[in-house]
Each structure stands twice: as C-alpha cells, then as structure tokens.
C-alpha cells in the first residue's frame, strides 16, 4: 500500500471530486518526414485546415463564454500572421511538425512572459492551438479519460475541457495553470472542481485521488480514514452550496428575524452585468481605481462608468469610493514611490495632495449623481479636517458646475473607517453622512500585519477581540448619532466572520458578488 | 485621392484589448477595405489591426490609450467604427475571468 501523498495548490473552482487520476501530459509523438518541402507544406496546410474545421464544428455546438474562447482560437488559426512563419521555415527545409512547433512556441513565449495575468493565461490557448495541429500532423489520437476522472498534468486545453463529459463528476488538478485561464472560468461556470499551481511532482502519479478544490489540495493513494473524511467534507460542501443558492433571491434575515442589508462590492462597471440587481440591496463599495490604469481618466470616462452602475441599481444606493490609489495600488504619474506605502500618501491623502486630479473625479461624481441614488465616500480618512477639505472641494465644484448650467447633485458624503484613529475616536466625525468600515485595512493597521504578507497572515484576523471591539464601538456610535454604519471588507462575505460582525452590531454588509448567496445563508444561521 | 484618418481611444475594458475583445476588433477591422493599424503610442510601433496575432501582440491593458489609423477607402469610417467599439467596451455583457 503506497503512502498517501498530499499536494497543495490554489483553488480555481471550488468543489470536491473523487476519482481515478488521468494523466494529461502527452507522450512524445512520432512524425514521418515527407519527401519534399512541397509535401511538408501540404501536410501542414491539411492539418491546419482539419484543426480549423474541428474548431468551427465545436463553436457551432457551444454557446456563451465557451464559444467565445473557441472563436478566439479559430481567429488565431485563421490568421496568416500565425501560420506564416511555419510555412517560411518549411521553405528552408524544416519538417512540418518542427516548423509548426517552433513558430507557435515563439508566439507562446510572448504570452508566457507577459507581466499581465490575462495575457499570460492566454498561453494555454496558444498551446492548445499548437497541439491540435500537432496531433493531426502526427496522427496521434487522444486517449479517452474514464468517466469521473481527475485530469492531472501541466495544463489542460480549453478544447479538451469542452469535449469532456462532466456529468458523472471529475475534476482538474494542474501543476501549472492559472485561476485566470479560460478553463478556470469555464470550470467555475459549470461547477467543475479545479485547482492550479500544484508544482512539479517527483513521482509518477496514478490511482484514485481526492480533489479538494474548496481549500486547494489533492490527496493521492488516500487511506480509508481520509476517504471517509473527504466524503463528509464533500457532501457538506454540496449541501452548503445548494442551501446557499436558495437564499440568493431572498432578503437576508437572521433566524431571530433581524434584517441585514447585503450589498455588493464591485471593481469595474461591467461587474454588474452578471449580477441580478434584485438579489442585492445596492452597491456598498464601488472602487474607482480601475479607471486609473496607466493614465489618468478624463471626466467623461468617469461619468459614464458611474452613470452605468447608478442606472443598473435603479433606486438602490450605490456607494462610490473616491480613488484609493497608493498602498499596494500604485498608479504611474499619480502615486509616489515610498518606503512604507501603506503608511504613506494614499487614499484621500493623495487626492488632497493632487487636487487637480481629484477635482476631475468630483465633477464626474456630481454629474452622475442625478442618475440614481449615489453616495460618495473617502478612503483612508484619519482626521476630520481631511473630510472637511474634501467636502469643501465638492461644494466648490458643485457651485462651478451650477454656474455653467450643468446638471448635478450633491450626494451624501461619508468616510471609510479603516485608520484606527477614526475607529477609536469616532466622535470627531459626527458631521459625516455615513461610515463604512473597511475591515481589510482596519485589521492590518490594528494588528500591524500587512495583508499581502503571508508570513504574518495568522495575525491578520478580523476576529481578534481588538478589531471586533473597535467595530462594535463604531456601530454603537452610529446608532447613538443616527449615522448609518456598514462594512465593506472581505470579512463581510466570510461565513466564519459574519456571526461576530452581527454580534458587534452591524446590520449592513457589502460582499463580492460571488459570496452573496453564502453570506445570506450564513446570516440566516445567526440567532440575534 | 487616398483618404486617411487617425484617432485615439481609452481602453476601459477590464482585461484590455484581449482575447474576446480582440476577436471583435479584428473582425470589425476586416470589414473595411482600408489599411488599418493600431499602436500604443503616437510614434508606433504600428500593428496590423486586421491580424489578431498582431493585435494581441500589442498587449494593450485597460487604461491604455489606443491609437488607431487607417489609409484608403473608408478610412474615416473604419477609424470611427473601431473607436466606437472600444468605447462601448466591446459590447461585452458577460463577467470577465477574474481571480478572487
């Protein structure tokens, strides 16, 4: 009996699968060299045409995201700029398989070395294109995987994913891979468990495996006790997910009948396209950093982005946070290089230091405010003077727009509670329209544990009494002063943290859209 | 007489001029007979806007100001239509691949 082997990876699509391991990595295929360059050219042309035809057939049989992924591959394969270098290499004496592999590998390197996740993830599509043609050239047929298999290997091709019947279970465990890949996206939308980043394994792996894609691990050659424990976790996950789904469309209430507002956090206006507006109570946090990529956005671009979300939300509140650049979110030409950026010129500090940039955002917000129920909040407020200066800029810009006859409206102005000074002494802020607790930053500042540093991750816990006590005191201040208090950090959607937050007096949480159902289900279990 | 046109547009799409957007972009470019090119800076390098390989190679992320130029029949219409496509966020109505 071999020893159980455990590998850790990163969850790309949550879920559990138990099944035989199926090795994805291909065996070396043989290629029969042709007599002349013309024959090599013909062989490659025929193989490309066959691959194109197969893709077109597959496109016609799929829809949605999957079809768009295939269309991308098809467009690539039909582009002479992709195939040209291979034919050129054949003309100077290369066999078709080498010519094709080298031409495609040259393209793939460009994707693999990109510093952007999205482009890097496209390398898998390019390898898929390469291998589809190579397989045809070498007449190598793909071995069929048994039903319910766990696909294990370097990476999995999107076409392979789409051709697989997942109805009898199964999952994906990749040594490399990316949670941003097309396959990861498909796996999430179809509920296929998937983990990535397992790393290279020294041993040849085979046999039955347990894939825990909720926590990101795989066990090979499991003991009987491990199989039993795994099955319990698996059925509990399925039950939790099924149960959570039934909560999605209902208002959130605890089992004692206390209503809790659940809003969503969004980072990009297009995020709302996939959310049913009736499942949430509004947008508790709309980030605006997405607008500040490599260049500073103009007023019109910002206005359109804000207006889109306001119109989507109908009469529900939309809380937009003014740009929170700096810290771990640098913006070239805006933020400054600092030795300790989390404690430096970020959030409202930076906006006040660069009023010419801030005023553009303020004008866009004032103009967008007429299209819905807008609220605006300032990040990283430490002292009330910062709030007052920001509010004064809003008043000035409103007057200037009005003088020019431009339609505008002053939204309620609130602040983020994330710097401990505000949480400890909230009484200085009795004039703000609302308070929104940014639990990620509040926790990292109270615990002095950077949230992007894995070696101090054990300290970065919202459930530490020091953090919870501050949250409770802010909630109590809000109740006494009739100032609404909400929370928009990751803790709001964490089923393990939700009971403590409600106990601390919060009745308004904002979560990422994917956590809406689970958050509502967790609220229903609270007896307050 | 040979027409020519040039314009710039800010890419606001979350993932930039990337797989799905670039399929739409090159498909639209191919509907015009004019020669169409894109660049990330006014002084180039310029990429063939009808080749998805070249457009993807430009690696234009969100926040990039995309330069579009065209020469030949319908150059103005081509640039106008492509700018509009980028402005409309490539008509994408689905969620983008996103890491948590």
UniProtKB/TrEMBL annotation, chain A:
Query: Which residues participate in Mg(2+) binding?
Result: 418, 441
Superkingdom of this protein's organism: Bacteria
The chain positions of domain Phosphotransferase system enzyme I N-terminal read 8-122
Q: Which cofactor does it need?
A: Mg(2+)
Q: Which GO terms describe its cellular component?
A: cytoplasm
Give residues annotated as binding phosphoenolpyruvate: 287, 321, 440-441, 451
Is the keyword Metal-binding assigned to this protein?
A: yes
Q: Under the GO molecular function aspect, what terms does this record hold?
A: kinase activity; metal ion binding; phosphoenolpyruvate-protein phosphotransferase activity
Which GO biological process entries does UniProt record here? phosphoenolpyruvate-dependent sugar phosphotransferase system
Chain ranges of the PEP-utilising enzyme C-terminal domain: 243-526
Q: Which reaction does it catalyse?
A: L-histidyl-[protein] + phosphoenolpyruvate = N(pros)-phospho-L-histidyl-[protein] + pyruvate
* Gene3D superfamilies, per the entry: Phosphoenolpyruvate-binding domains, Phosphohistidine domain, PtsI, HPr-binding domain
The family this protein is said to belong to: Belongs to the PEP-utilizing enzyme family.
* PANTHER family named among the record's database cross-references: PHOSPHOENOLPYRUVATE-PROTEIN PHOSPHOTRANSFERASE
Biological role: General (non sugar-specific) component of the phosphoenolpyruvate-dependent sugar phosphotransferase system (sugar PTS). This major carbohydrate active-transport system catalyzes the phosphorylation of incoming sugar substrates concomitantly with their translocation across the cell membrane. Enzyme I transfers the phosphoryl group from phosphoenolpyruvate (PEP) to the phosphoryl carrier protein (HPr).
User: What protein am I looking at?
Assistant: Phosphoenolpyruvate-protein phosphotransferase
Automatic annotation (TrEMBL), chain B:
Q: Which InterPro entries match?
A: HPr (IPR050399), HPr-like (IPR000032), HPr-like_sf (IPR035895), PTS_HPr_His_P_site (IPR001020)
SUPFAM superfamilies registered for this protein in UniProt: HPr-like
UniProt keyword terms in alphabetical order: Sugar transport, Transport
Is Cytoplasm given among the entry's keywords?
Answer: no
Domain HPr, which positions?
A: 4-93
**Function recorded in the entry:** General (non sugar-specific) component of the phosphoenolpyruvate-dependent sugar phosphotransferase system (sugar PTS). This major carbohydrate active-transport system catalyzes the phosphorylation of incoming sugar substrates concomitantly with their translocation across the cell membrane. The phosphoryl group from phosphoenolpyruvate (PEP) is transferred to the phosphoryl carrier protein HPr by enzyme I. Phospho-HPr then transfers it to the PTS EIIA domain.
Q: Which NCBIfam families match?
A: PTS_HPr_family (TIGR01003)
Write down what this protein is called.
Phosphocarrier protein HPr
**Protein species of origin:** Mesorhizobium wenxiniae
């Amino acid at each position: 009996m071999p020893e159980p082997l455990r590998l850790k990876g990163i969850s790309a699509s949550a879920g559990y699968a138990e099944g035989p391991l199926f090795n994805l990595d291909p065996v070396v295929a043989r290629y029969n060299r042709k007599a002349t360059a013309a024959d090599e050219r013909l062989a490659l042309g025929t193989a490309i045409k066959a691959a194109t035809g197969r893709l077109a057939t597959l496109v016609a049989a799929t829809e949605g995201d999957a079809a768009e992924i295939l269309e991308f591959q098809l467009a690539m394969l039909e582009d002479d700029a992709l195939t040209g270098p291979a034919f050129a290499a054949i003309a100077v004496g290369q066999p078709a398989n080498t010519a094709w592999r080298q031409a495609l590998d040259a393209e793939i390197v460009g994707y693999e070395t990109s510093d952007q996740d999205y482009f890097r993830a496209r390398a898998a599509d390019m390898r898929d294109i390469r291998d589809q043609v190579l397989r045809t050239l070498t007449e190598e047929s793909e071995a069929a995987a048994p039903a319910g298999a766990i696909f294990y290997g370097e990476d999995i091709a999107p076409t392979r994913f789409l051709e697989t019947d997942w109805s009898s279970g199964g999952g994906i465990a990749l040594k490399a891979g990316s949670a941003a890949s097309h396959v990861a996206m498909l796996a999430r939308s179809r509920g296929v468990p998937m983990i990535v980043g397992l790393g290279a394994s020294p041993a040849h792996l085979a046999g039955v495996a347990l894939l825990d894609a909720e926590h990101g691990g795989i066990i090979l050659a499991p003991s009987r006790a491990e199989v039993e424990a795994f099955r319990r976790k698996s059925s509990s996950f399925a039950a939790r997910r099924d149960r959570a789904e039934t909560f999605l469309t209902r208002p959130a209430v605890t089992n004692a009948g206390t209503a809790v507002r659940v809003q969503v956090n969004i980072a990009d206006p297009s995020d709302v396209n996939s959310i049913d507006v009736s499942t949430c109570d509004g947008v508790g946090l709309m980030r605006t950093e997405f607008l500040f990529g490599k260049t500073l956005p103009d007023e019109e671009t910002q206005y359109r982005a804000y207006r889109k979300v306001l119109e989507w939300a109908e009469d529900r509140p939309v809380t937009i946070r003014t740009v929170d650049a700096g810290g771990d979110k640098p913006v070239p030409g805006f933020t400054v290089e600092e030795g300790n950026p989390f404690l430096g010129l970020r959030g409202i500090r930076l906006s006040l230091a660069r009023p010419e940039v801030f005023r553009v955002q303020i004008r866009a917000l004032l103009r967008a405010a007429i299209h819905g129920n807008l609220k605006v909040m300032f990040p990283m407020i430490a002292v009330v003077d910062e709030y007052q200066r920001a509010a004064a800029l809003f008043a000035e810009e409103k007057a200037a727009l009005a003088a020019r006859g431009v339609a505008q409206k002053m939204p309620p102005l609130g602040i983020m509670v994330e710097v401990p000074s505000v949480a400890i002494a909230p009484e200085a802020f009795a004039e703000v329209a609302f308070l929104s607790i940014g639990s990620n930053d509040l926790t990292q500042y109270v615990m002095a544990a950077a949230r992007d540093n894995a070696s101090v991750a054990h300290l970065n816990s919202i459930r530490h009494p020091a953090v919870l006590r501050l949250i409770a005191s802010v909630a109590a201040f809000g109740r006494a002063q009739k100032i609404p208090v909400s929370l928009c950090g990751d803790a709001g959607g964490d089923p393990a943290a939700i009971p403590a937050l409600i106990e601390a007096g919060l009745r308004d949480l904002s979560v990422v859209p994917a956590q809406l159902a689970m958050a509502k289900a967790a609220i229903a279990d609270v007896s307050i | 007489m040979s027409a020519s046109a040039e314009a710039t547009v800010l890419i606001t799409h979350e993932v930039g001029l990337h797989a799905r957007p670039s399929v739409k972009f090159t498909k639209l470019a191919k509907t015009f007979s004019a020669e169409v090119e894109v660049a990330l800076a006014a002084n180039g390098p310029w990429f063939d806007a009808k080749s998805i390989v070249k457009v993807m190679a430009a690696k234009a992320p969100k926040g990039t100001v995309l330069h579009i130029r065209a020469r030949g029949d319908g150059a103005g219409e081509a640039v106008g239509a492509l700018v509009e496509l980028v402005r409309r966020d490539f008509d994408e109505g689905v969620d983008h691949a996103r890491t948590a």
